[in-house]
Write a structure and sequence with these properties.
The two termini are 29 Å apart. By secondary structure, this protein is an alpha/beta fold. The strands form two sheets. Strands 5-4-1-8-9-10-11-12-13 form a nine-stranded mixed beta sheet, sandwiched between helices. The radius of gyration is 18 Å and the shape is globular. A hairpin with a 2-residue loop joins strand 12 and strand 13. Helix 3 packs parallel to helix 4.
Length: 297
């Protein structure tokens, strides 16, 4: 089976449970504090591996990032290409309210120090039918995208978080674009996420585009093909890694050559299960759990 090469971020997540997410100028008391492994790259590699894919993770951590590498290795991810740098690891502060909604800010740390030779290594690992997975949490993504294009790689890009750089990228090499409402709106420069979806489909007609809508489900588009799937109805505890669980499971499914519908459904189920658990990486389910959940539904 083809493999997934994830050139992605790794973060130390500081999670604060709050009654209400803090507003500007407000101080709130945390009901609890937890430290978890996270980062969109780490979460997505973990999800893909737990869904049965062969995964190689390429990235950077600081001396404080040993536990991040260990959690990937413990789920069978190849961590041979993760470098330890003098810079601290990437980190996130996450507020989670009783409804499971969150507010997150991140600092790039070692994630913003990926070197050109690491990029070349990641691209060089790709063989026929393999996929390259990217998120918007590392540096020099235009260089990565150009290298992927030159290689003719299958490239999946989760343009998250939207931080202003998304307008600078060349998406001509992207085979699969995964965005939520905020990211789609930022890329298309409109506040209407459905208008943004239409705009992105028009601009990139040969690219698979998935717009995730949280509790409203998702929309998939490729050329003239459109699929809409509702979200699974579950009790939400923490939404933090729902999108990452979705992406990892979707990538694993397409590596197995599953149909688009089955891939989206399994990925949606993984995302639904993730929101019923606390934390980011700690909430990522295994494929057998997802299969049982789908049967129950």
């Amino acid at each position: 089976m083809p493999k997934l090469v994830n050139l992605g971020s790794l973060c130390v997540d500081n999670v604060y449970h709050v009654q209400n997410i803090a507003r500007a100028g407000e101080t709130v008391t945390s009901l609890g504090h937890e430290i978890h492994p996270g980062g969109k790259g780490l979460n997505q590699s973990l999800a893909a591996a737990r869904a049965g894919a062969e995964v190689v993770h390429v990235g950077c951590v600081g001396a404080d990032g040993g536990s991040l590498v260990d959690v990937l290795s413990g789920s069978g991810v190849d961590v041979s290409y993760i470098r330890t740098l003098e810079s601290p690891s990437g980190a996130a502060v996450i507020q989670v309210d009783p409804q499971g909604q969150n507010a997150i800010f991140i600092t790039g740390g070692a994630n913003r120090l990926v070197s050109p030779d690491q990029v070349d290594t990641a691209i060089g690992l790709l063989e026929s039918n393999d996929w390259l997975l990217l998120q918007n949490e590392i540096n020099d993504l235009n260089y990565v995208l150009e290298a992927a294009k030159a290689q003719g790689a299958n490239t999946a890009f989760n343009v998250a978080p939207a931080d202003g750089r998304e307008s600078e990228y060349s998406y001509s090499a992207v085979s699969l674009l995964i965005v939520n409402e905020i990211e789609a709106s930022a890329m298309a420069e409109t506040d209407d996420h459905m208008e943004a979806f239409t705009t992105l489909r028009s601009k990139y007609p040969t690219t698979q585009i998935i717009l995730t809508l949280g509790r409203e489900g998702l929309i998939y588009g490729l050329g003239n093909k459109t699929l809409e799937l509702p979200a699974f109805d579950v009790g939400v505890i923490d939404e933090t890694a729902a999108g990452d669980a979705f992406i990892g499971f979707y990538m694993a499914a397409i590596l197995r050559s599953e149909s688009t519908y089955n891939s989206l459904r399994e990925a949606s189920a993984a995302g639904a299960l993730a929101v019923t658990r606390t934390g980011a990486a700690t909430s990522i389910p295994y494929r057998e759990d997802v299969a049982d959940f789908i049967v129950e539904q």
